[in-house]
């Protein structure tokens, strides 16, 4: 099942709790803070993800619809970091590997650490199927159509 992170920028209070929780969970923050809101991996389609397509060792692999970095196969060439359209791959110096957001699917969490830490309910997780159901609700149609125009070629 393909899962996506949705951020409500108008609700964000810039507290950094999501970034702190990610760093605590993974040893390095896999999300970044812009001047106003957190920025997360776009969770690109596994067949189209620039980071996976450019990796010379095949270290970025699909597991259950999510791309995960095989730390043993990563040679730290940083090509994936350059290819990422939003620059969301980071280096974990301790593990000597590139890492990316997996929505915490690579650890024993049901809810991603960042979502759980967000006291303002800014971060939400949806499956692609959930989004299709929401599109049928007429109050969301205009919002989804505008979002799809922006992100159509990126996911």
Automatic annotation (TrEMBL):
<keyword id="KW-0004">4Fe-4S</keyword>
<dbReference type="GO" id="GO:0051539">
    <property type="term" value="F:4 iron, 4 sulfur cluster binding"/>
</dbReference>
<dbReference type="InterPro" id="IPR017900">
    <property type="entry name" value="4Fe4S_Fe_S_CS"/>
</dbReference>
<keyword id="KW-0479">Metal-binding</keyword>
<keyword id="KW-0813">Transport</keyword>
<feature type="domain" description="4Fe-4S ferredoxin-type">
    <location>
        <begin position="3"/>
        <end position="33"/>
    </location>
</feature>
<dbReference type="Pfam" id="PF13247">
    <property type="entry name" value="Fer4_11"/>
</dbReference>
<keyword id="KW-0408">Iron</keyword>
<feature type="domain" description="4Fe-4S ferredoxin-type">
    <location>
        <begin position="65"/>
        <end position="94"/>
    </location>
</feature>
<dbReference type="InterPro" id="IPR050954">
    <property type="entry name" value="ET_IronSulfur_Cluster-Binding"/>
</dbReference>
<keyword id="KW-0249">Electron transport</keyword>
<keyword id="KW-0677">Repeat</keyword>
<dbReference type="GO" id="GO:0016491">
    <property type="term" value="F:oxidoreductase activity"/>
</dbReference>
<keyword id="KW-0411">Iron-sulfur</keyword>
<dbReference type="GO" id="GO:0046872">
    <property type="term" value="F:metal ion binding"/>
</dbReference>
<dbReference type="InterPro" id="IPR017896">
    <property type="entry name" value="4Fe4S_Fe-S-bd"/>
</dbReference>
<protein>
    <submittedName>
        <fullName>4Fe-4S ferredoxin iron-sulfur binding domain-containing protein</fullName>
    </submittedName>
</protein>
């Amino acid at each position: 099942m393909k899962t996506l992170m949705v951020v409500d920028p108008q609700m964000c209070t810039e507290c950094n709790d999501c970034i702190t929780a990610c760093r605590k969970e993974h040893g390095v923050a896999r999300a970044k803070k812009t001047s106003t809101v957190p920025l997360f991996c776009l969770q690109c389609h596994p067949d189209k993800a620039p980071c996976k397509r450019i990796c010379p060792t095949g270290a970025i692999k699909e597991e259950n619809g999510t791309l995960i970095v095989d730390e043993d196969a990563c040679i730290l060439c940083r090509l994936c970091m350059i290819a990422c359209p939003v620059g969301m791959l980071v280096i974990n110096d301790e593990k000597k590997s590139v890492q990316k957001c997996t929505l915490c699917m690579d650890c024993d969490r049901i809810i991603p650490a960042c979502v759980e830490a967000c006291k303002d309910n800014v971060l939400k997780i949806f499956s692609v199927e959930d989004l299709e159901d929401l599109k049928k609700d007429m109050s969301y149609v205009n919002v989804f159509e505008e979002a799809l125009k922006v992100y159509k070629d990126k996911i």
